[in-house]
């Protein structure tokens, strides 16, 4: 039987590879890249052969013609969509049989999945893959996109239910895969409005504490309006964290690190979901 052996929460901010090191506050570049390296080392230590990476589209892969509430990639994957991230486009190996099983299991159970038989993923998947997973050559990746950015949004409760469906699908899979899940996104950040560049470190630290306590119900209880008022529209990407936490319900959170990064317009948090 396949099993989920661990999970992580980490950022996908494109400025991490795009903004020159000279523009970062002293010590921040080394800290952030060190946190990504620690995630990668832990994935290897867990013996994972498949990673489910949960991200949010940024009007890049989808829209305005089609904006799926939730999408799973079941075929060819390459990255990155954006040519300005600072690294070359490459193919990513997908665990297609397991991805198709997760899709079919969810459809039978009431999850209205969209799916992609071929996709070029944006920085939501590409940044964590590049900085934490790319040197793990035998690792396969299943990208999942949740709509946390364009109204009407996927609800936090639905993000949890979707993660729970993925967890049960993996437990029902007869293969022997060892799976890790990565919930990616920014913490506090305001995108495209007059507060862009502001970081609410107090909100972010409270969010990290809830992740450490594995208090997913407290995260779900925060309304979208409350999150946006306190931490900006970009903080709604915490739905990706909720989805990952639903896949690791018995986990104990371990904070890897947090950095408030106005120069990258966001707070960047890293945590392990230790199962």
Number of helices: 9
Tally of extended strands? 9
Report the CATH architecture. 3-Layer(aba) Sandwich
Structural classification: alpha/beta
pLDDT averaged residue by residue: 96
- What is the class in the CATH system? Alpha Beta
Order of helices and strands: EHHEEEHEHEHEHHHHEE
- The portion of residues assigned to helices is 25-40%
CATH superfamily: LigB-like
GO molecular function, one term: ferrous iron binding
InterPro entries: Xdiol_dOase_suB
Domain Extradiol ring-cleavage dioxygenase class III enzyme subunit B: 8-268
Organism: Novosphingobium pentaromativorans US6-1
Show the helix and strand layout.
Elements: E1 3-10, H1 15-18, H2 28-45, E2 50-55, E3 70-79, E4 90-92, H3 96-108, E5 114-120, H4 123-133, E6 140-146, H5 156-172, E7 178-184, H6 201-212, H7 216-221, H8 224-231, H9 238-247, E8 252-261, E9 266-274
Parallel strand pairs: 1-7, 2-6, 2-7, 3-5
Antiparallel strand pairs: 1-9, 3-4, 3-6, 8-9
Structural account:
The chain is α/β, with parallel strands linked by helices. It has one domain (3-256): Protocatechuate 4,5-dioxygenase, Chain B, CATH 3.40.830. It is built from nine helices and nine strands. Strands 1, 2, 3, 4, 5, 6, 7, 8 and 9 form a nine-stranded mixed β-sheet that branches.
Short description:
The protein is an alpha/beta fold. It has helices at 15-18, 28-45, 96-108, 123-133, 156-172, 201-212, 216-221, 224-231, 238-247; strands spanning 3-10, 50-55, 70-79, 90-92, 114-120, 140-146, 178-184, 252-261, 266-274. One of its GO terms (molecular function) is oxidoreductase activity, acting on single donors with incorporation of molecular oxygen, incorporation of two atoms of oxygen.
């Amino acid at each position: 039987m396949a099993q989920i052996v661990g999970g992580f929460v980490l950022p996908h901010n494109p400025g991490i590879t795009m903004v020159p090191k000279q523009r970062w506050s002293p010590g921040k570049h080394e800290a952030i890249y060190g946190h990504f390296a620690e995630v990668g080392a832990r994935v290897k230590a867990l013996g994972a052969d498949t990673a489910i990476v949960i991200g949010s589209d940024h009007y890049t892969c989808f829209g305005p013609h089609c904006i799926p509430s939730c999408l799973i990639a079941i075929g060819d994957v390459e990255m990155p969509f954006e040519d300005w991230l600072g690294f070359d486009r490459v193919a990513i190996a997908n665990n297609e049989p397991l991805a198709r099983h997760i899709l079919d299991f969810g459809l039978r159970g009431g999850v209205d999945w969209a799916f992609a038989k071929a996709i070029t993923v944006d920085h939501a998947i590409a940044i964590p893959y590049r900085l934490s997973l790319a040197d793990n050559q035998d690792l396969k990746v299943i990208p999942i996109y949740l709509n946390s950015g364009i109204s009407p949004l996927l609800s936090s409760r639905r993000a949890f239910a979707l993660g729970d469906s993925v967890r049960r699908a993996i437990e029902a899979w007869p293969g022997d895969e060892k799976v890790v899940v990565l919930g990616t996104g920014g913490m506090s950040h305001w995108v495209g409005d007059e507060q862009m560049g502001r970081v609410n470190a107090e909100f972010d630290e409270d969010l990290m504490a809830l992740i450490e306590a594995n208090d997913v119900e407290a995260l779900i209880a925060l309304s979208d309006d409350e999150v946006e008022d306190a931490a900006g529209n970009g903080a709604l990407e915490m739905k990706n964290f909720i989805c990952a936490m639903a896949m690791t319900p018995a986990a104990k959170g371990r904070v890897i690190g947090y950095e408030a990064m106005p120069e990258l317009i966001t707070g960047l948090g890293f945590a392990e979901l230790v199962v």
